[in-house]
Design goal:
Strand order of the largest sheet: 3-2-1-4-5-6-7
CATH superfamily: NAD(P)-binding Rossmann-like Domain
Structural class: alpha/beta
Strand content: 15-25%
Mean pLDDT: 93
Number of domains: 1
CATH class: Alpha Beta
Distance between the termini: 23 Å
CATH architecture: 3-Layer(aba) Sandwich
CATH topology: Rossmann fold
Number of strands: 7
Length: 231
Amino acid sequence: MPVALVTGGSRGFGRALSIDLAMDGWALVIDGRDRSALQQTADHLIGLGAHTVAIAGDVADPAHRSALIESAGDLGSLDLLVNNASTIGPSPLPRIEDYPLDALRQVYEVNVLAPLALLQAALPQLRRSQGTVVSLSSDAATEAYEGWSGYGSSKAALDQLHRVLAGEEPLLRVYQFDPGDMRTEMHQAAFPGEDISDRPEPETAVVPLRALLDSGAASGRYRVDEWVLQS
């Protein structure tokens, strides 16, 4: 069976994607910082019949990343790495003149350096399977929204890393996927006190991503709306 490693798999988009993969016969390694939420998701995946390994922890922790990669190897050949875990940074979102540098360092640690380190550790397995890398991007990586300097610039940096990786690893498929606005805890943190119930549930972005994964499309950056009609 194919094996996927999905970071931030306990909630939101990561959870929705993990459930979809489980129903399609994938084995899964998932993580999350909230041990209780992670266990609930793991129990659900196991109930669907998926071989599931759930490891609580922070992707910014090198020991945690090592445990994720080792667990994926124990399940077989890693076929899909999904860098979904990320942080929005301070809430409310600060202007550049007020952005705490320590907070910005943490945003880059989680959103850029941790995915890069996980990729570096996963490459031997991904090369063997000629697998796929998906990292969640955002329109904040390409558009200048007030207050989004930290998160947006971190996603722009991650996008560029993936463009270079795609050139260096032509046998892999390397995707940056922009799922659009979603009704998640992280999106709520970006708009504290506001009603975000008009945003789509994360499940609506999973189907287009699966269409992208099944398409064999060339490595690159894709928006959710480019694949809605193909899903």
